[in-house]
Specification:
heterodimer; A: mainly beta; 3 helices; 15 strands; 15% helix; 46% strand; B: alpha/beta; Alkaline Phosphatase, subunit A; Arylsulfatase, C-terminal domain; four-stranded antiparallel beta sheet; globular
C-alpha cells in the first residue's frame, strides 16, 4: 500500500497555527468576570503535534488549576490536577496543593504532591506512586517523602511552571512587563535562569471572532521557550512549548477519561486477538 | 527460553549461592525486613544495575565534558563520579538498529534490525531475557523500546512500567522518570534490580525540525541573538561526498527551508535545551537512588542509541557515517568499584560492549557470539588487548564504517566513492583521503579489516544487500 503523503507544519505553533490545524475547537471566549487575583478555575487540554498537518496530532490529557485566595491576602492556594495518557491507555496523574505567596512570581512556599499511575488494564499501579510534602526554607527545598526528610538545592527566585500559569495572568500588558526567576518544573526539577516578558498584541480570528490576544514569552535553561496568550481580561487562553499546547477547555477532564478508556479497550482487544491467534 | 539453569557464573556457582556464601549472606538471612536496603552491597557483591538510554544525544553535550552551551548537573554527576569513554560509537546510527545491538551484543546485520521498526531475530536473547534466565535480578523497563515498537507493554524478559508517549519526549520522559522513582522508593524486594530507564529526549529535536523547517524572516526570540552558540568548525562539507550522504542531507529540513546561519544557530541552541530537559529526568533517578540508599550499590551505565548532526557537515538528525551521528556518550559508574572522574580517550568501544560488560559485573557469562568485549578491565585500569577497531553499519545495511585509532574508512553499496579520514590530523572529517596514493596502504588495511569482520558474522536471513557485502568480503 502506498504511504500517505504527509505535509510538515514547517513553522512554530502559535494560536494561528493551532487554528489552522483544527486544534482550538470551542475555545471559551467569554471571561468578562474573570479576576486573576480572585478565585478561578482554568482547565486546559494538553494537545501535542508531531510536526505534520494531516496526522499524528492528538489530545493526551488535561491540566486543571484552581486558585483560591487567602483570607489575609498574603498568600493563596493553587490546586493542580494533571492527567496524561501514556501509550496503551496507561494514565499518569499528578495532584498538588500549593500554598503560594501573593507576589509577582506566585512563589510556592509549601505543597503536597502525589504522582500515581494506572496501567493499561485499568488497575492502579501502587508500586509506582509517590507522595511528597515540601517546604521552602530560605533558598533550600525540604522534601518529606518515604517518611524521611531530604534537602534539595533551591533558589531565592523560585516559581513553578504551574504557578506561572497564575503569575502571567497578573502581569500588566506593557512592554517592560517582565519576570526573572528559576522554575521548579512539575514542582520537582530545577530549571534556572528564566526570563518572561511581554511581546505585544497578537491579532487572531477564532471561530469567526476577531480578537487581540496578549503575548508573553519565557526563555531559560532546561526548557524550550514557553509562549503564553491571554485575553483582554488577563485570562490565560493558551500556552505553547514546542510541540505541546495547553488550550483552555472546561470539558478536557471528561475527554481525558474517554481517551484513556478507549485506548485501554483497544489494547485489551488486541490482547484478546493475539491470544486467539496464538491458540490457533 | 529455559529458566531452569541459573548457574552460568564464570566460577560455576549461581547468584543465590554466591550471596549465601559471600559476605552478603547475613543480609539475605535478614530477608524482607531490611526492605530497600537489603541488597546494600558489600564491596565484592554484585550491584544493582541502572541502564539509562537517551535518544539522539550528541557526544559533546555535557557541561562537565567541556560543552559550554548547556547546564547538565545530572550528566555532570554521572561523568564526574565515574568513567567515561571519548571513543564510544553507535553500532548503527538509527534508533531501532542501535538499540538491537545494545540489548543483544550483536551487530545489526545479525539481529536483523537493519532499519527502524524491525524485531530482533528470535534466537538472539536480549539483556532482560538473559538476566531473567541467568540471575535473580528483578528486571524492569521504563520508556522507549523501539525494537520493533517504540512503546509496548511487552518487552521479553522485562516487567514493563507503562510510561511514554510516542514522539513526545518531554511529557513522556517525565512520566517514565516518575515511574522509575516510584519503583525505587517503594520496592521491598531483597533481589537486586536491573532497571532500564530509556528516555526519548533529546529526540524531540525531530519535532522541533518539523516545526521550524521554514527559515523565518527574523529570529523568533530576538533577545537570543547574542546568546546563540557558534556553528561548528566543520559546518562546511565536501561537495564530492558519496550520494548516500548527499541524498540524506537533501532530504533534511535545513536544505528544504534554505536556512540562514542564524537559523542553524537557533537549532543548536534549541537542541541544547532538549539535552537539559533529559538531564532533569536523569537527575530525578539519581536523587531517588540517593534517597533510598541505593546510590553506592548501583552500577549506572548511560549511553545513547546514536548522536545528532548538530550542524557538523550541515547535517541534522542521524543516519550519517560522520562522528556527530556515530559517536555517543558512554558513562559507567559504581562508587568504590569504578574509578571516579576518569576519561578514556583512546580505546574504541561501541554498543556491542554493553551486554558483555553488564554480564561480567553481575557474575554471569554472556550469551554466545558476543561481538564486543566487557569494558570491566578498562574501567578498573587493567591492561588488556583491545579491539583494534570498531565497526558501524548504516541504515538499510547500505554502508559500513571501520574506525581504527588513526583512520575512519567508509564504504557504500552501489557507490564508487569511498571515504578515508585521518582522524588524528582531521577529526572533523573534512578531507577524504581515499583517492590519495599516499594513503593506499591504509585504505587496503581497512578494507581487509572489514573483510575479516564480515566473514565472522552470522547475518540474519533476508538481509538487504547481504550479497553485496558478501562479495566485498
Amino acid at each position: 500500500m502506498a504511504k500517505t503523503k504527509r505535509t510538515i507544519v514547517g513553522s512554530p505553533l502559535t494560536p494561528t497555527m493551532l487554528e489552522e490545524l483544527g486544534a482550538i475547537g470551542e475555545l471559551p471566549l467569554r471571561s468578562d468576570d474573570f479576576d486573576p487575583d480572585g478565585n478561578w478555575v482554568n482547565t486546559y487540554r494538553v494537545w501535542i503535534c508531531h510536526g505534520y498537518r494531516e496526522s499524528g496530532n492528538e489530545e493526551v490529557g488535561h491540566l486543571r488549576i484552581e486558585r483560591t485566595s487567602g483570607k489575609s491576602g498574603k498568600s493563596f492556594t493553587l490546586k493542580v490536577d494533571q492527567q496524561i495518557v501514556n501509550y496503551e491507555g496507561a494514565l499518569h496523574s499528578v495532584h498538588a496543593g500549593i500554598r503560594c505567596l501573593n507576589n509577582r512570581l506566585a512563589s510556592p512556599v509549601r505543597w503536597g504532591l502525589t504522582s500515581s499511575f494506572i496501567g493499561p488494564d485499568g488497575k492502579r499501579r501502587r508500586e509506582l506512586g509517590t507522595e511528597e510534602k515540601v517546604q521552602i526554607k530560605a533558598d533550600a527545598i525540604e522534601v518529606e517523602t518515604d517518611r524521611r526528610t531530604f534537602k534539595r538545592k533551591g533558589s531565592t527566585q523560585l516559581t513553578s511552571d504551574w504557578c506561572l500559569f497564575d503569575a502571567v495572568q497578573r502581569l500588566a500588558f506593557e512592554q517592560d512587563s517582565s519576570l526573572t526567576f528559576d522554575v521548579l518544573e512539575g514542582l520537582s526539577l530545577l530549571r534556572q535562569g528564566h526570563h518572561l516578558s511581554y511581546r505585544g498584541l497578537y491579532p487572531i480570528n477564532i471561530n469567526g471572532k476577531d480578537l487581540s490576544l496578549h503575548w508573553f514569552s519565557q526563555l531559560g535553561h532546561g526548557l524550550l521557550p514557553y509562549d503564553y496568550w491571554l485575553d483582554e481580561h488577563h485570562r490565560l487562553l493558551m500556552a505553547i512549548t514546542l510541540s505541546r499546547a495547553y488550550i483552555l477547555d472546561d470539558k478536557a477532564p471528561a475527554r481525558t477519561k474517554l481517551i484513556a478508556e478507549t485506548q485501554r479497550r483497544l489494547f485489551q482487544q488486541r490482547q484478546e486477538t493475539n491470544k486467539g491467534g496464538k491458540s490457533k | 527460553m529455559s529458566n531452569k539453569n541459573k548457574t552460568n557464573r564464570a566460577d560455576g556457582i549461581n547468584r543465590r549461592e554466591f550471596i549465601k556464601i559471600g559476605s552478603g549472606g547475613a543480609l539475605l538471612l535478614a530477608g524482607g525486613s531490611l526492605g530497600i536496603n537489603a541488597f546494600a552491597s558489600p564491596k565484592n557483591s554484585t550491584p544493582n544495575i541502572l541502564l539509562i538510554i537517551t535518544d539522539q544525544q550528541h557526544i559533546d553535550t555535557v557541561a562537565a565534558g567541556g560543552c559550554r552551551y548547556v547546564r547538565t548537573p545530572a550528566l555532570d554527576q554521572l561523568k564526574n563520579r565515574g568513567f567515561s569513554f571519548d571513543q564510544s560509537h553507535s553500532t548503527n546510527p538509527v534508533c531501532s538498529p542501535a538499540r538491537s545491538s545494545i540489548f543483544t551484543g550483536r551487530t545489526t546485520s545479525e539481529t536483523g534490525v537493519y532499519v527502524n521498526g524491525r524485531s530482533v531475530r528470535s534466537d538472539i536473547p536480549n539483556l532482560g531475557q538473559w538476566f531473567s534466565q541467568e540471575t535473580d535480578y528483578e528486571t524492569v523497563y521504563a520508556g522507549k523500546w523501539h525494537v520493533p515498537k517504540s512503546y509496548t507493554h511487552f518487552i521479553p524478559g522485562f516487567n514493563v512500567l507503562h510510561t511514554g508517549i510516542s514522539g513526545q519526549g518531554n511529557l513522556g520522559d517525565t512520566c517514565a522518570s516518575r515511574a522509575c522513582e516510584g519503583f525505587l522508593r517503594n520496592r521491598s524486594s531483597s533481589r537486586p534490580f536491573f532497571m532500564v530507564a530509556s528516555f526519548l529526549q533529546p529526540h524531540d529535536i525531530c519535532e522541533w525540525l518539523r516545526l521550524n523547517t521554514h527559515n523565518p524572516d527574523r529570529l523568533r526570540y530576538p533577545e537570543l541573538a547574542d546568546k546563540l552558540p557558534p556553528l561548528p568548525d566543520n559546518f562546511e562539507f565536501d561537495p564530492r561526498e558519496p550520494d548516500y550522504i548527499k541524498q540524506t542531507r537533501l532530504g533534511r529540513d535545513p536544505v528544504k527551508g534554505n536556512w540562514s546561519k542564524q537559523q542553524w544557530q537557533f537549532y543548536l541552541w534549541s537542541y541544547y535545551r532538549h539535552i537539559e530537559m533529559v538531564d532533569g529526568e536523569i537527575g530525578r533517578l539519581l536523587q531517588a537512588l540517593q534517597d533510598t540508599g541505593n546510590d553506592r550499590d548501583t552500577l549506572i551505565l548511560l549511553t545513547s542509541d546514536h548522536g545528532e548532526g548538530l550542524g557538523h557537515h550541515q547535517m541534522v538528525r542521524k543516519s550519517s557515517p560522520y562522528d556527530e551521528a556515530m559517536k555517543v556518550p558512554l558513562f559507567v559508574s559504581w562508587p568504590g568499584h569504578i574509578p571516579e572522574n576518569k576519561t578514556d580517550t583512546t580505546h574504541l568501544v561501541s554498543g556491542l560492549d554493553i551486554m558483555p560488560t553488564l554480564c561480567e559485573y553481575t557474575g554471569i557469562k554472556p550469551p554466545k557470539k558476543m561481538r564486543g568485549k566487557s569494558l570491566r578491565p578498562l574501567l578498573e585500569g587493567n591492561s588488556v588487548p583491545w579491539h583494534p577497531c570498531v565497526f558501524t553499519e548504516l541504515n538499510g545495511n547500505r554502508a559500513r564504517v571501520v574506525r581504527t585509532e588513526h583512520y575512519k574508512y567508509i564504504t557504500y553499496v552501489n557507490e564508487t566513492v569511498e571515504q578515508l579520514f585521518d582522524m588524528q590530523a582531521d577529526p572533523g572529517e573534512t578531507k577524504n583521503l581515499a583517492a590519495s596514493s599516499k594513503h593506499a596502504s591504509a585504505l587496503a588495511e581497512h578494507k581487509k579489516l572489514l573483510i575479516d569482520w564480515e566473514s565472522r558474522l552470522d547475518v540474519a536471513p533476508n538481509l538487504p544487500h547481504a550479497d553485496a557485502w558478501w562479495r566485498k568480503g
